[in-house]
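User: Fold this; tokens only.

Assistant: Input:
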Amino acid sequence: MNGKIVRSIAAVAVGSLLLMVTGGMASAGTVGGKGTSSTEAAGAQVLELRDHLTKVAYAGDVKSTKDALKRLDPLLGDLSAGQVYAIQAEAQETAGTAQGYRSETSRVLADPSTTPRQVPSVPGLPPLPDPLSMVSDLLQTLLATLTSLISGLLGSAPALPVPVPEVPVP
């Protein structure tokens, strides 16, 4: 009789332990197969900074564009280093690529006499207005790379908030 009671208590204890362990794994596991809640927070922050950068760049605001690029620097550095956020290797590599485009764009905006790296233009994006036209392709490539990074972190990314050109009325 005592043996049955002991076995019952042991079974309840093991069941409780398994419930707590699997519950902890569920809360620390991946969401949508992409990352943890801190990774989702980083993805949301990249999305917010990408959208802000898009708006100020397409407004032709050089100072705000430089500030937005500066704000991206530490986050992209953390994501590409892979030490602060546990992200997939592909997203980590994309963050490193975005960091390179960000650095190059910042360098050219700081010293307009330098020649930017030639990258192909991104299809579907309108060119940036002056005075940012000198880095239009580079900045558009950065925006596209950030969109790819957001997809890697969050599972999907909303479209860039680019201005829609007005259709002339006849």
